[in-house]
Amino acid sequence: MKYIVILGDGMADYPIEELHGKTPLEAAKKPNIDALAEVSETGLCRTVPQNMKPGSDVANLSVLGYDPARYYTGRSPLEAASIGIPLKETDVTFRANLVTLSEAENFEDATMLDYSAGEISTAEAKELITFLADKLEMPGAKLYAGVSYRHCLVTQNGSVNVTLTPPHDITGKKITTFLPKGDNADFLLSLMKRSRELLRNHPVNLARAAAGKKKASSLWFWGAGKKPSLDSFE
Do the Cβ atoms of 143 and 202 come closer than 8 Å? Predict the structure, then answer.
C-alpha cells in the first residue's frame, strides 16, 4: 500500500471579520478536500510534543514517524540536508534569512519589516547570497544559497549554545532585544551588520526598490543545530 501525506501547514488560519467570522479554510471552496473527507477517517492528532515549539520542522519529523524529542537537533540542519549541503558531525548550521529591516543609523535600532524580503525570488536571492559569500570574512564558515529567502550558514566546530530569534516572530518589532546572545554571538552579529552594508546598494536591491518591492537588506540567523542522526525511514 502507498500513502500520500499532505500537510496544510498554517492553512487553517484564524477567523476574520471579512469572512463573517469564518477562517479562510472554512470559507474556501474545496470540493476535492470535501469529497475525500466524506470517504475518509478523520480526526485530530498532536504532531508537536507539548514541551517543544510548534514549528513545521518539529511537526514534519513527527508526521514521518521520527520522535522529535529524540531526533530533532534544530531547524537549519534539516534545511541543509534538503538542499544537499554535506555536513560533518562537528558542524553547526544556522538558517540564514534575507530580511527587510527599516532604515536606522544603528543596526540595533532597526525594525523587522519583513522576514522574507518580500518573498524575494530564488534567482535574486542566489545572486545576493553568492555576493555575500564572496565579500564577507567568514573564517571557518560558509554561506549556502537555498530557495527564496531561506539560506544556510555552516560553521566548523561551532556551538549551539546560542539564543537566536526567528525573524517571523518579531515582524514589526525593533530588533534590539532579539539580537544573537551566547557562543559566537559577536561573530553572527558582525555578519548581519556587514551584510546590511554590502546589500544596501546592490543592483538587485536597487532594481527591487525601483519596482516598488522590498529590499533584502540584511542576513538574519536563527535555528541553530547539528547534523541529525536519522534511522532509515523504511
Answer: no
